[in-house]
Specification:
- The chain has 457 residues and is α+β, with helices and mostly antiparallel strands.
- The protein is built from 8 helices and 22 strands.
- The two termini are 25 Å apart.
- Strand 1 and strand 2 form a beta hairpin.
- Helix content is 16%, strand content 40%.
- Strands 3, 4, 5, 6, 7, 8, 9, 10, 11 and 12 form a 10-stranded antiparallel sheet that branches.
């Protein structure tokens, strides 16, 4: 009896240990029964799909303009609010706010480090309501939130690499590159006047945003050549205030200092992106498909659901795997001075679920959404466990759900992932940096196949 139980456990372990690279399987045999596992291959079709707009409520902002010979021009700008923490206070004996600056700290950039661009800062003239969900997408219209006929609050010319900083400082771990924009003396006077007369306006973020500063629209007005990836946004207030003198005991010693208010997850920060019509030309190419970020191109896969259902509706699908190779270069290798990165993580999600997936801050569940990671060894993206997706669609068919044209379609979308302290993925968002990949497939390109391992009941 013990031997028979051991044989059953051994068979089960063998059957379910098939990994994602399995392409053909022979017979699995136990001492009790003979169960055959079969493999089957089906053709899938793919095409390039343009993403006109993506959900962009992230903890980073992007700014700049770049023209690529293969993908055309795109620009990035953003709207941000500034958070005021609860019970915020300036020094008790404030003498004067001597200056205010908006500081944009960035972790990286794409493009020409020395390209000169001009950034303009405008204050918003409309309070952003929770119902303004369109601001969470990269296609929002900033003119609805600021007066473009009014003189800007500030203008600054910059380059991605500040050559006024010494190499010895730039190469240290303590250096944090930034673009610092002086907002002018009158803006500081405005802040001080409200703080003195209406201190309740500074009691929390809601009061501050509604009464003091609705937010900023930050955008590039001139130049081309780089895009910076902004991680931190600070509003720095430079202050003169008085403290008690050690010699006299009187409050008459003048001190120079500063305090910082920052953009944060508690308030809105949203990037707007514009791509040129060049992407429409790439969509029409039939010999391959593309992935292009930010907010540009993804790949649509059509699964042969009806064909698989007709053949395997009574079978057990043990594994279903799709692997897609990429070309070495996304565009013309000789036309681009700056090589784009390769999307490292690609989300496979049902086409009809794309909006709710990102809006509801979901993570992939290996049932209706899957994560494929680029492998440099195979130069490909592999999606396994797709048997769960297909079984889910089979259930929809059996229950008589009305057929929709997107039922058998999934999108491959470049994403970035957020992990916890233990390395577990807890968040997925659109990849907003500059990356691209050209994939095998397309309506007239190399055939793509989905591999199925199944057993008969």
């Amino acid at each position: 009896m013990k031997f028979k139980l051991l044989a059953v456990f051994t068979f089960t372990a063998l059957l379910y240990s098939c990994d994602d690279s399995t392409t053909g399987v022979g017979d699995f045999v136990s001492n009790l029964d003979k169960i055959e596992a079969f493999s089957d291959t089906y053709k899938v079709t793919s095409r390039t799909h343009k993403l006109d707009s993506v959900y962009s409520r992230t903890n980073k902002a992007y700014m700049g303009k770049y023209t690529d010979p293969d993908f055309g021009q795109y620009s990035a700008d953003f709207i941000t609010q500034i958070n005021c923490p609860e019970k915020f206070e300036l020094p008790e004996h404030l003498d004067k706010i001597t200056g205010v600056s908006l500081e944009l700290y960035y972790t990286d950039f794409y493009g020409d480090s020395l390209a000169t661009l001009t950034v303009q800062v405008d204050t918003l003239n409309k309070i952003i309501e929770d119902s303004d969900t369109g601001l969470y997408y990269t296609s929002y219209e900033p003119k609805d939130y600021y007066d473009e006929t009014k003189a800007p609050l500030a203008v600054k010319t910059y380059a991605a690499v500040d050559m006024s900083v010494s190499d010895s400082l730039r190469n240290t771990s303590d250096y944090y590159p930034s673009i610092k924009i002086d907002l002018g003396e009158s803006f500081g006077e405005h802040i001080q006047s409200l703080y003195t007369s209406k201190p309740e306006y500074f009691k929390d973020a809601y009061s501050f945003i509604n009464n003091v500063l609705k937010g900023f629209y930050v955008h590039t007005t001139q130049g081309d050549g780089s895009v910076v990836y902004i991680k931190d946004i600070w509003l720095r207030l430079n202050l003169d205030y008085k403290i008690k003198s050690e010699s006299t005991g009187e409050i008459d010693s003048l001190v120079h200092g500063n305090t910082v208010l920052a953009a944060s997850k508690e308030v809105l920060m949203s990037t707007r992106l514009e791509n040129s019509d060049k992407l429409d030309e790439l969509v029409n190419e039939k010999g391959h498909t593309y992935l292009k970020t930010p907010a540009g191109l993804c790949t649509e896969i059509t699964l042969p659901i009806n064909e698989i259902y007709d053949t395997h509706k009574e079978d057990t699908l043990n594994s279903v795997t799709l692997s897609i190779k990429k070309y070495r270069y996304a565009g013309n290798e000789n036309s681009n001075t700056f090589t784009m990165g390769i999307p490292q993580n690609v989300l496979m999600v049902r086409k009809g679920d794309i909006d709710t997936f990102f809006e509801q801050n979901k993570t992939y569940d290996n049932k209706t959404s899957f994560l494929g990671t680029y492998s440099s060894n195979t130069n490909s993206y592999t999606f396994s466990k797709l048997n769960r997706l297909i079984s889910n669609i089979f259930s929809e068919i059996r229950s008589g759900e009305e057929y929709t044209e997107d039922r058998d379609k999934v999108l491959l979308i470049p994403v970035t992932t957020e992990t916890d302290a233990e390395g577990n993925i807890i968040g997925v968002s659109h990849d907003m940096e500059v990356n691209a990949a050209k994939l095998f497939g397309g309506e007239d390109g190399e055939e793509l196949n989905i591999e199925i391992v199944y057993t008969k009941p």
